[in-house]
């Protein structure tokens, strides 16, 4: 066709059409649409010498890996063939203007009921690296989770030399009993939650547990090759140290963002965090342990004190030592300094390709105190201290799930399900890190469904203050949906609003979705509220989340369609009799008000 020959009106139009067509083809090549089906079903597993049935996706623990490229759209149809309602969350994926598919139950949707299906639209935007997906109903995350790998967009590359191989390592907790029943009992009686029986790497507890050494996860490596290991922590309630015997780790990404490389011989990863590390197989051929070992800084000392192993195993002809080589530098369970020193090293790449756009001018400031707390129980019959119910709180508010999701109530203007008055600061100021916070006026919290309203495009700064209420100070990994945030500072003790801001890094702070607020310390985050919708914020220890250390942000629409929430899908799961979507049962563990 003579497109490039004659000059004239027809050809201009034709050429323009071809040009548009090329553009369309290009944008198609740049952003693909991918389809996945997840079948949720009870499946039997035998671990630690005992068999139980657990709810998993497609029969596997951990579940399938989703692999996409930056900017793709991923559709996941979740078919619930289990026995109770479940939702899935796409952890760390911002979902621009798309809160309908974010997933936390009673925040953006009601559970997907057994025998039904729901297709999530997952919109990838600035994320690149490793994230994960997990159930966001009660404690079903324990067995319903898997990695979400986001490769660089076509024709772009990693900001580090291309690794020879990639491997996903998912960290989980394993309970011999049914997690749903354990959690139901704990919440019913208001006492402590049961500890896990082991941790697992890619589903395997490893050599140091009974009946486990035949199935220990082994990563076969070639001498001289470099491996990109994509670490995901979906552990239930415990931070973990990770190390590989005799091998340095080069940390290059955290939470789906690149960081300035950190060379280290161990790392600390909290529930909800994901990390990309490079490891080069430079050592004499052999079998080297890869360990995850708990880190705990609370006084209660109630955590699963076991260590999980996998093996970094060189290929080739050699005689390995009788047992694999053990790391000599993995920190001890209580090594606070090791944990803090690791987190202190995180910095954004802040390069032209991966800039750090740290908000400099703040329009909304919040100060949020994180506490373990208690609620009164009828006739003091609960299992917590003084017959109270164990709880947790942000600014003294113990979050209660409403019976229809906050998003639906907000979008359709249905009153009575939440209050838009989450406080910007604690109701009383006290010495948050004191050892003397045992009186009722400090330990008892207030239950409610209270959220924080933000105007579109506000620049938000939140100082999180860890408290020692009930002598229960410990590190809390706070996770925010719908955004990535910059962690501009962190420190020990009570936040000092004059001196501590002087220490902020406003140049290249790490951009994350989960960050541990140190025990009896503080951390400051900043983000721009440029994603309209309803977005959950909570501690990523499931026991603190189910005790109420949560709130949500409602970001109002801006002035244009591009700054407003997308229209809702035709179909959302039903919320029972309260719902405009029709009648079905609620989740089995919904907090009674
Ligand atoms: C990637 O590069 C190839 C080869 O240069 C080119 O054909 C293709 O159009 C590029 N793709 C995109 C999305 O730019
Ligand atoms: C899960 O199982 C279903 C049914 O067997 C299958 O169609 C689907 O492709 C599987 N999904 C993944 C991610 O493996
Ligand atoms: C799971 O194990 C239980 C008890 O061991 C057994 O009754 C049940 O049939 C098994 N289910 C499946 C799907 O294999
Ligand atoms: C999925 O659910 C829709 C209703 O939302 C239903 O029409 C469809 O048949 C279901 N599909 C499958 C494969 O279960
Ligand atoms: C597992 O442990 C048993 C008992 O200690 C031992 O006999 C067996 O050889 C071990 N298997 C492996 C693969 O290490
Ligand atoms: C690990 O890195 C440190 C600091 O760069 C270096 O001194 C050490 O030799 C490295 N160890 C290994 C096993 O490569
Ligand atoms: C509390 O105690 C009173 C008096 O013993 C009793 O009547 C009531 O049923 C109890 N309430 C609960 C919730 O147990
Ligand atoms: C707060 O409590 C801590 C721990 O008991 C103590 O070291 C500190 O001095 C107290 N701060 C103030 C201002 O009283
Ligand atoms: C709680 O009560 C104690 C003793 O009455 C008092 O010293 C303390 O200041 C009160 N704390 C708060 C936060 O109100
Ligand atoms: C939290 O709220 C409860 C219930 O209203 C109140 O008794 C308590 O004093 C408050 N605690 C603090 C530290 O403000
Ligand atoms: C958001 O705020 C930034 C900086 O304050 C401004 O440049 C931008 O135009 C605003 N965007 C919208 C859509 O209001
Ligand atoms: C700083 O904190 C003090 C009390 O600790 C308070 O009185 C003051 O208002 C705070 N200043 C700002 C700017 O928040
Ligand atoms: Cu917590």
Automatic annotation (TrEMBL):
SUPFAM superfamilies: Cupredoxins
CDD domains: CuRO_1_LCC_plant (cd13849), CuRO_2_LCC_plant (cd13875), CuRO_3_LCC_plant (cd13897)
Cofactor binding annotation: Binds 4 Cu cations per monomer.
Secretion signal, residue range per the UniProt entry: 1-31
GO cellular component, one term: apoplast
Species the sequence originates in: Rosa chinensis
Subcellular location: Secreted, Extracellular space, Apoplast
Protein name: Laccase
Domain (Plastocyanin-like): residue spans on this chain: 41-153, 168-317, 421-558
């Amino acid at each position: 066709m003579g497109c490039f020959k004659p000059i004239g009106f027809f050809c201009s139009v034709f050429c323009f059409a071809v040009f548009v067509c090329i553009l369309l083809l290009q944008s198609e090549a740049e952003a693909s649409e991918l389809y996945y089906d997840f079948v949720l079903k009870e499946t039997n597993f035998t671990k630690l010498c005992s068999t139980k049935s657990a709810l998993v996706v497609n029969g596997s623990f951990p579940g399938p890996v989703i692999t996409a490229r930056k900017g793709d759209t991923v559709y996941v149809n979740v078919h619930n063939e289990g026995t109770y309602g479940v939702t899935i969350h796409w952890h760390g994926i911002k979902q621009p203007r798309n809160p309908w598919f974010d997933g936390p139950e009673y925040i953006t949707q009601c559970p997907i009921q057994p025998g039904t299906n729901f297709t999530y639209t997952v919109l990838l935007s600035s994320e690149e690296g490793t994230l994960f997906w997990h159930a966001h109903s009660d404690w079903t995350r324990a067995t319903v989770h898997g990695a979400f790998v986001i490769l660089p967009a076509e024709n772009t590359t990693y900001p580090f030399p291309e690794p020879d191989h990639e491997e996903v390592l998912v960290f989980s907790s394993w309970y011999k009993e049914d997690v749903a029943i354990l959690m139901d009992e704990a919440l019913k009686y208001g006492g402590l939650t049961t500890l896990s029986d082991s941790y697992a790497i890619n589903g395997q507890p490893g050599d140091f547990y009974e009946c486990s050494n035949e199935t220990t996860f082994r990563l076969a490596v070639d001498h001289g090759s470099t491996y990109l290991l994509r670490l995901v922590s979906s552990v239930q309630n415990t931070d973990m140290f990770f190390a590989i015997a005799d091998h340095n780790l080069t940390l290059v990404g955290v939470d789906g963002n690149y960081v300035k490389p950190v060379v280290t011989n161990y790392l600390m990863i909290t529930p909800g965090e994901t990390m990309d590390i490079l490891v080069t197989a430079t050592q004499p051929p052999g079998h080297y342990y890869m360990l995850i070992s708990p880190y705990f800084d609370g006084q209660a000392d109630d955590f699963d004190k076991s260590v999980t192993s996998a093996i970094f195993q060189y290929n080739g002809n050699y005689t390995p030592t009788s047992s694999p080589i053990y790391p000599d530098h993995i920190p001890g369970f209580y090594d606070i300094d090791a944990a803090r020193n690791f987190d202190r090293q995180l910095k954004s790449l802040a390069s032209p390709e991966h800039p750090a756009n740290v908000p400099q001018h703040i329009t909304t400031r919040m100060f949020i105190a994180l506490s373990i707390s208690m609620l009164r129980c009828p006739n003091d019959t609960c299992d917590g201290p003084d017959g109270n119910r164990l709880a947790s709180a942000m600014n003294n508010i113990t979050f209660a799930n409403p019976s229809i999701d906050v998003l639906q109530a907000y979008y359709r203007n249905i009153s009575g399900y939440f209050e838009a008055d989450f406080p910007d600061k604690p109701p009383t100021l006290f010495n948050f890190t004191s050892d003397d916070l045992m009186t009722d006026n400090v330990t008892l919290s207030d239950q409610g469904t209270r959220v924080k309203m933000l105007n579109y495009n506000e620049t938000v700064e939140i100082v999180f203050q860890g408290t020692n209420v009930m002598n229960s100070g410990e590190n809390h990994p706070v996770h925010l949906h719908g955004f990535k945030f910059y962690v501009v500072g962190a420190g020990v003790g009570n936040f000092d609003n004059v001196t501590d801001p002087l220490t902020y890094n406003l140049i290249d702070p790490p951009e994350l979705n989960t960050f541990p607020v140190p025990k009896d310390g503080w951390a400051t985050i900043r983000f721009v509220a440029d994603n309209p919708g309803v977005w959950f914020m909570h501690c990523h220890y499931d026991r603190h989340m189910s005790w109420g250390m949560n709130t949500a942000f409602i970001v109002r629409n801006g002035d244009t369609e591009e700054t407003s929430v997308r229209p809702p899908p035709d179909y959302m799961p039903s919320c029972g009799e309260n719902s405009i979507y029709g009648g079905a049962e609620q989740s089995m563990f919904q907090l009674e008000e």
